[in-house]
Amino acid sequence: MQRQGQQVFAHSTLVPERGAQGETLGFFVFSHEITEQKRMQAALLQAQKMEAIGQLTGGLAHDFNNLLTVIIGNLAALSDQRPNDPAVADFVDPALQSARRGAQLIKRLLSFSRQQPPEPQAVAISRLVDDLGRLIRRSLPENIDIAIRCDDPGLHARVDPAQLESALLNFAVNARDAMPDGGRLEIAARAVRLATDAAGYDCPPGDYVLIEVSDSGCGMDSDTLAHACDPFFTTKRLGLGSGLGLSMAAGFIRQSGGGMRLSSTPGHGTQVSVALPATAAPLATPLPDDPGLPEASGELVLLVEDDPNVRQVVRQQLIDLGHPVIEAENADQALAMVGQIPDIGIVVSDILMPGSCNGRQMAEQIKRDHPQMRIVLMSGYADEEGPRQEQQPILAKPFVRQELAEALRHSGNKERQ
User: Are 331 and 361 in contact (CB under 8 A)?
Assistant: First the structure.
């Protein structure tokens, strides 16, 4: 039913009133509102959907990262073999760039679909906003104009980039729903110094990066605006919104040391302003062009990987780095070889493999029985990374030869993590 312009739900119980002869004289009706219960059920259903999406995306990410490992590894090898051939570079360089963008897309899908602990870092806001703009343009209808304004490449904020991108995407989706007949969405970022006006963002005075997401939609009245960030509060029809988007975004922004402010006028749109602590740009630490190939008499490497195409690429990278290589398809084969071949110095293994144990369990057994042996684990899926206290390095797929060389260098460094 509609009450005060809002859709509400009620549960009603009808109790008949009977006369002395058993005839029905009428009935009593007892009704109580269950709108909040309905909203909580919808939020739980949404959380269950996100969990299912996360599990599906995780499996897809592992398979796609294996494919990208093969693609990037072979393209990089071709580029290394023909470094001064412009005819090869014209084809290989765009393909490599697209494959690496595919790897970043997989990371973003995982971030959107799974709850991960915040990892604050110095984020180039201009680049993040530009990338988000390209993503939004594919997601919003054509009757919404999108404007991106951030011309300062030196603008950096200390924040978790995946969670910030997720929050800004949520603001854009809310703006889309507020403009069913089309309109204008604008995302702008600039540096500000908050002094007395810091109270409006509920954050201490200081230097901030201000990100503003504005739309020309229907806007909100004062009552709606006052409760917009309350958990489970939503003006959308039941099933179309959980009422958690703004509250979770506000919580994440406070956790990052910043603040958020909403302003809106009915019929004149809404603006979400996010203030995040400004920080300096990180020092560039590029990988060396040549990782410094070891001598041909390098340590014997046992490569454990169930995908034959990935195994072929990684084997060639190890050979290029000067290591003799023997191979196993699963952990059972690898453990048998470790027990029989004392010359094995390094084990390079995928984590997710068929068989009685996975790569991590295999690594624990090897370190227990052969503590001098060095181990590098390869991961095609973020959730395989395991606890931070693990000492063996985790090499995220897809990777190139330089990154593999770096992981091999650090495989014996217990102070790395």
Answer: yes
CA distances to 107, 126, 206, 209 from 257, in Å: 25, 20, 11, 12
Task: Indicate the burial class of 276 (C-beta count within 10 angstroms; 0-12, 13-18, 19 or more).
Answer: buried
Mapped to the 3 state alphabet, what secondary structure does 224-281 carry?
Answer: HHHHCCCCCCCCCCCCCCCCCHHHHHHHHHHHCCCEEEEEECCCCCEEEEEEEEECCC
Are 125 and 211 in contact by the 8 Å Cβ rule? The answer is yes
Residues 6+ apart with CB under 8 A from 4: none
- What are the C-alpha distances in Å from 28 to residues 22, 25, 265? 16, 10, 44
Tell me the H-state helices in 5-160: 35-81, 86-113, 125-139
Report how far residue 326's alpha carbon sits from residue 328's, in angstroms, rounded to the nearest whole number: 7
Question: CA–CA separation, 360 vs 352, rounded Å?
Answer: 8
**Cis peptide leading into 398, omega within 30 of 0?**
yes
Distance CA 184, CA 269 (A): 9
Going by pLDDT thresholds of 50, 70 and 90, the confidence category of residue 35 is: confident
DSSP-assigned letters across all residues of 320-372: HTT--EEEESSHHHHHHHHHH-TTEEEEEEESS-SSSS-HHHHHHHHHHH-TT
Give the pLDDT of residue 228. Answer: 74
CA distance 238 to 83: 59
In 3D, which of 254, 292, 290, 293 has the Cα closest to residue 274? 254
Burial string for 46-79 (b: 16+ CB within 10 Å, else e) reads eeeeeeeebeebbeebbebbbbbbbbbbbbbbbb
pLDDT for 215: 92
User: Under 8 Å CB-to-CB from 34, ≥6 apart: which residues?
Assistant: 9, 10, 11
**Which amino acid is residue 17, in one-letter code?**
E
If residue 7 lies in a helix (H) or strand (E), which one and from where to where? strand 6-7
Q: What is the pLDDT of residues 112-146, one digit of tens each?
A: 555 455 678 899 999 999 888 887 887 788 899 99
Going by their DSSP bridges, the two strands 344-350 and 300-304 should be labelled as: parallel
- 272 burial class (0-12, 13-18, 19+ CB within 10 angstroms)? buried
Strand pairing category for 394-396 and 374-379 = parallel
182-201 confidence digits (pLDDT tens): 999 999 999 999 888 788 88
Residue carrying structure tokens 């009915």:
266
Q: Tokens 């908050």 identify what position?
A: 194
